[in-house]
Amino acid sequence: MKRLLVLSALLLTWGASSTASAENIEARLIGYNEVPSVSTPAGGTFNATISRDDGLIEYELSYSGLVGTVQQSHIHFAQRGVNGSIVVWLCQTTTTPAPAAVAGLTPFCPQSGTVTGQITAANVISASTASQQITAGELAKVIAAIRAGFAYANVHATPLNPGGEIRGQLRASHRDRD
């Protein structure tokens, strides 16, 4: 019985440490980061965690003060100061639905507030610019782009900012290596 208790305690400790080593992603979304820059009172944050096995990203996107009507939000593949292809839908609206392949996996955007969700390989869509070489299902490539600093999140709003009203480059923390 004593061995069973010790083994159980060790397994619980191991399980807690594997969760603790998940990798964090964050971004501050503001209009000045958009291309071209937008003067807007809006702001937001993107916070996420990449699972230890790189198979899941759990995210929280919060924003407020948008001048326009929210239409959609995404993760795009591009460096700072450049517009890039959408690779993950973070939220959709009835007027701007996500592509059919990911619509059922994509939450709806509030006009202001917080949206949460999970990203797996099933959420990744093909980059619209073929030369970017990310195709549907390639979560590993999206995570590599995030880690390299070549992905951003933004929120699109109409009528003034259909290309994006607020944007933030994603930054991944360094995860503890076991």
Spatial sequence of strands, sheet with the most strands: 6-3-2-1-9
Number of helices: 3
Largest sheet, in brief, is: 5 strands, antiparallel
Give the ordered list of helices and strands: HEEEEEHEHEEE
How far do the termini sit from each other?
Answer: 30 Å
What value does the average pLDDT take? 90
- Please report which band the strand proportion falls in: under 5%, 5-15%, 15-25%, 25-35%, 35-45% or over 45%: 35-45%
CATH class: Mainly Beta
CA-atom Rg in angstroms: 18 Å
Secondary-structure content class: alpha+beta
The helix fraction, in percent, is: 10-25%
In the CATH hierarchy, what is the architecture at level 2?
Sandwich
What is the tally of beta strands?
9
CATH topology: Immunoglobulin-like
Taken together, the total number of domains comes to 1
Low-confidence stretches: 3-20
What general form does the structure show?
A: globular
